[in-house]
Amino acid sequence: MNARDHILGRIRAALGRTERSREAARAEVKATFDARTAGPHPLFDADLAARFRREAERMSSTIDEVAALADVPAAVARYLDARALSRRGVVWPALAGLDWAGAGLAMETRAAGDMDLVGVTGCFCAIAETGTLMTCSGPRTPAATSLLPETHVAVVPMSRIVPAMEEAWALARSEIGELPRAVNFISGPSRTGDIEMTIVLGAHGPYRVHLVLVRGE
Amino acid sequence: MRSQAMFFKARAGDKLADRQLQANLGKAKSRFVEGRAQAVVDYDAAPGADFEALRDAASAIRDRVLANLDVWLETFEDKARARGAEVLYARDGAEICRLVVDIARRHGVTKAAKSKSMLSEEAGLNEALAAAGIEPVETDLGEYILQINDNEPPSHIIAPVFHKSKEEVAELFARTHHTPKKDDIAGMAREAREVLREHFMSAEMGISGANFLIAETGSAALVTNEGNGRMVTTLPKVHVVVTGIEKLVPTLEDFSTLMRLLPRSATGQRISNYVSVLTGVKGEGDLDGPEHLYVILVDNGRASLVGTEFEPMLRCIRCGACMNHCPVYQSVGGHAYGWVYPGPMGSVLTPLYTGIENALDLPHASTLCNQCGVVCPVKIPLPELLRKLREKQVDLKLRPWRERLALRLWGWVAARPALYGFAARTAVRYLNRRAGGTDRIRALRAVPDWTAGRDLAAPEGRTFRELYAERVGHEGRTKR
Q1: Do the chains contact at B68 and A190, CB–CB below 8 Å?
Q2: Where in the numbering of this chain does the 4Fe-4S ferredoxin-type domain appear (chain B) (predicted)?
Q3: CATH number of B32-304: 3.40.50.920, 3.40.50.10420, 3.40.50.720, 3.40.50.800?
Q4: Does the interface ipTM go beyond 0.90?
């Protein structure tokens, strides 16, 4: 007997599975998928943007705010210069249309590599409950851009801030249908507490995450 | 991993006498406890939030899957296959190793970058890979430290080097990396980052566990703070997920509920830095992601718990809260437990997965104080399960005959109230005399191990039943 039949057979025996109960179980699976009941969670009906900012800062992200998408390159340049960081980097193809060169930045539209110091991404949406970015991988939104560089800058349209993960899933279902290969929830720079439970920022991913909130979007 | 759980008593003794370990444990142990407590208070402060309701909902989600585990597994398989994943099953650790080595050979893999996986510890996967000429590289900082320290086993399921001081790590790094010894933790973390970055870029295969499998979408969810989980599932051309059959949750909403509990219970975080929901292989036009995805669903003892009194243990989401809060774990650390899983959850799982006769001490390595049960995010009644394992040991005649005889005798006396009252009175008078007017008994021959480590508090006078009878009398009721 192969491993699959062996394991499933043991589970079925333990559950006393019959053809009838199997049908009932399948019906329950379908009902569960149809209902998609959200569990108990806090209510954030007030100012989502304020909540998002507060939680993101708590997770060690830094935050800037601009009026329109066209203002983003200048804000990114300001941030990089203030910290004496490189003006070169990689940017999501989805954001290639912004005037990066006009802000004095050398942003390349390609997959991020090991040597890239700055990665600029957008996000699918952002979650107020935990100050989290949700990114969906795809040809125009590669996953590694937010991972390999030491500095990650993300553009967050304020209209895309949702209360919690549940609303983010609902948005994904209605706008893209099937989940992309990788949905990444990112909450601040990478960190480790493995040595003496002492938190150090910048483990394998970025040392810093900077969010540029866009009001007009 | 070969279990050393039968030597718990001796190993625990050694650990208690290990001054370095005791100092390290003393430094670390309160952080997780305080972190979780604060996280619960903060969560409950938000309008509409109730941490207890969250625990109830989470255990219901886990139970719902376990009640129809076969059908949920089939559902997951269908969804995952439809997205290009190959779903495989493994009965035991040896089968995991065989499958992973086969996959590695099929794709010409020479190096595998690994994100932390306790199942890989169960299987001894690193040894099997190395024996097949494939270099396994642990990339979680804690696991990496253990690997370069001659493959030392982890002592905690989410903080593998809980037992080590930074000085010990600094020396290990200087020795292994041939670099000057560092004294700051940030410097050590950067050094490991640089070493491991090269491995991430060159490994042809990534191996990870899964914190959850999502039936609705056929996805594997991975939670890390360091970002190594993202690295090993994004960069190599092959990704292998090795995970237990019990990790399934029905929907993305259920996953969201569990994600409110996991980081808070584990580290006291509101959310972990990276939560990845991974579905299928690299798509058309994608710039990154694996071309081949394998999901290995592992039994290794889990299926035998389904439908039994121990089934609630399969709810476990591996947060580590039970060990963080366990006075026994806090005193002896994780290595004393002798297998992959320490603390209360380990004391239940080790006998169930490796044989009840191979871990006789573990169900007794608990005061049944229920700290673990109170903090468990999925409400596993850990003390009750430990007690059931103790009963099983007695039923299977695995306890020494003296102990069994004593228990039987006690049971016989306890069922006879008058005799019990007499015996209790006699014992109290005797212990009183032994204390010789003080409130402590230094040594008692009947329980030498117990009084070797501490004094026995002497009874203050009369038995509970005597005092109770007197009180009822005072209140004017009729004495029987």
Answers
A1: no
A2: 306-337
A3: 3.40.50.10420
A4: yes
